[in-house]
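Re: Re: ligand-bound prediction request (bumping)

Still looking for help on this. To restate: I need the protein modeled with NAP bound, output as structure tokens. Inputs repeated here so nobody has to scroll up.
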Amino acid sequence: VSAILIDGRAAASRILRRLRERTRALLEHGTRPHLTVLHVGAHPASAAYLESQRRHAKSASIEFSTRRLREDASAADVERELEALSADSRVHGILLPLPLPALLDAAQLQARIDPRKDVEGVNPENLGRLLSGRPGIVPCTAASVLEILEPERLPLEGAEVVVVGHSTIVGKPVALLLLDRFATTTVCHVGTRDLASHTRRAEVLIVAVGKPGLVRGDMIRPGAVVIDVGTTRVQDPDGSWTIRGDVVLEEALPVASRITPVPGGVGPVTVALLLRNVVDAAERLSTGSGAAV
Ligand code: NAP
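Reply:
Sorry for the wait, this slipped through. Here it is.
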């Protein structure tokens, strides 16, 4: 018996198809949704993610532009740029890729993005709204985990769900979204003493760490649904580069019931939901209902 691979690319295509209809309607009213990415320094690790955003934005008639600041840009330089983009009525979504150069504080800068254009949901206002149960713009990777679980028709209420990783952008928001669905949610992290004792209980296991091979087959409960968020570029012995998840897929396949592959699982859905956030923002800003996210 082998787990069913959850096809993130197919789910992303469905989301993008619906988006195209919405962008067409916006274009008819003179608004072209526009996402701007502000790069600070070089980001080799996120190049594939950004390329995917560019390609899918184009396919959904969303304008995609980039601005670049040098590696040695000061916090004031980045803040000035984010404030200018926030004030620019032609821009509906702003993305600040991480990691930033070591001397810059991501949270301080994310706070300078207009919350209505914060399409990654990382501004304190959007994070606070998520915590208070009145979500504004939800971090797209966390939202994509729920989007992937939705058609699986799992009764999340009362389910044992374990999230490995507690970052602000993935682990914590996923846990909050699951709590809102009344899942019994355990969050594991570097301080967790016996990771396997938790993961083995999980009916739904969500792993967002960035350590290939962290979750082995014997750490998975038979029949579990496994969502592997991890994406790490690794060099194979032949010198080529591939993207690996955190779960050892070959070991998980005979144990789990369903699992997201890497690549082709969470990644494409995240890109589609990021673009959906841009279209949502463009609709709200163009109709003047921007304040009520
Ligand atoms: P992050 O900020 O580095 O967070 C990683 C988390 O894992 C932290 O909470 C860390 O705990 C925890 N951790 C580290 N080692 C651990 C261990 N041995 N056992 C249990 N927990 C451990 O990374 P992130 O931004 O959340 O991203 C996580 C992964 O998802 C990365 O591979 C990233 O590339 C990927 N990602 C994928 C997508 C997508 O669309 N597919 C989107 C975003 C991110 P501490 O903070 O306490 O160290």
